[in-house]
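Repro:
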Amino acid sequence: MRPYVICHMITSLDGGLHPSRWTKSPDGERATWSETYEAIHKTFAAEAWMVGRVTMAEISRAAPHPPAEAVDVARPLHVADRNAASYAIALDPHGKVHFNSGDLDGDHVVVLLGKDVSDEHLAELKNDGVSYILSSTSDMDLPGMLETLGREFGIRRLLLEGGAGVNGSLLAAGLVDELSFLVAPALDARKGADRVVEFSEAGLAHACTLSLLGCENVGHGLLHVRYAVGNA
């Protein structure tokens, strides 16, 4: 069974993702907003969190370092640690994110990869102690890979935390069960600014429905809004 997926994000009123680019508010500071976001993150008691390629590259900050000697690699699955207390998951279709180890601030790293990612990249991940799952199809088989996360790693609840592309991809595939948005008293207003969700020119109009679960004032000008996600 695939994990229950909660898309948990903090956003400006107009959907901006980068607090450093938002207007200021007398109700609170960006650091306080981030602390509240992390505190709510912990209340979900999820076994894993997941981000896209760009976000994970910003977190890992590792350079390519292919192994000097040949390494036998497994396809489509390599499990380096199936008993970790928690997991950091990256969606990286083309194998562009690198890691210095299989541990990221105490979370074991699992990478979801495209079917044709090179053996050289897989060898690098294996040497670093990183687990990986390759798609079984030419496009990303997101339902199948989430099923594997549940079966092989025991992940029952997963927090999806951006960026916009990975959020949109999972919503379009019907794999998000709930939205949890912290809405800050701020505006971005830049042309072409990143948004909480982005998918395609067609958008998600025919992909899902939203039903309000609750809206709570959590202080410092922040609203915590939760929606159940259904199929359109």
